[in-house]
Write a structure and sequence with these properties.
With about 180 residues, the protein is mostly helical. It has a domain of about 100 residues. Helices cover about 55% and strands about 0% of the residues. It is built from 7 helices and 2 strands; from the N terminus they run ααααααββα. A hairpin with a 3-residue loop joins strand 1 and strand 2. Helix 4 runs antiparallel to helix 6, helix 4 runs parallel beside helix 7 and helix 5 crosses helix 6.
Length: about 180
Amino acid sequence: MQRSDAQSPRDRVSNQLPVNVRCASSEAGEQRRLPDRRRRILWAVVYGSFNARRRRPPRRMNESRYHSLDWHSAHLLAVSIGILIMSVADAVLTLTLMSYGAVEINPVMGALVDGSPAVFAALKIAMTGISVIMMVFLARYRFMRAVRVELILYAVLAGYMILLGHELRMLQNIPDLHLF
């Protein structure tokens, strides 16, 4: 049962406000003297690259759903560079093996190789680079709530090592080719 003379919580708050409240800036006109800092996107990217603020995940549990970091660990840079170098080596070795009669197993990449080797190499490296950037950006997240994306980066690096070892073994089996 409610009392008719009881004030609602909103009324209690509004009664405590001063009577002469100034209008909001949108009603009274813009009050800022400096330009809006959100319009300088390039400056924010450059400045944020050298003066990172978000180096750790959030402290509060309710902020853990989505957060980005400005600064990532150095080992992620090493893994990323390793993956990109191995991607370039894979493209070169694939084109070399295909010139000796090998067949590309991946149907998408096979269609690209048949079209133009330069387009194949450029698209392969671009797709790998974009994927690595996204995985570094999401390195602290869990894929399918099970595996951290950082560990997937290490798995990709190990996979490239195995693939390059296999391609080098295939090159050694070519009788006309003298590698060393």
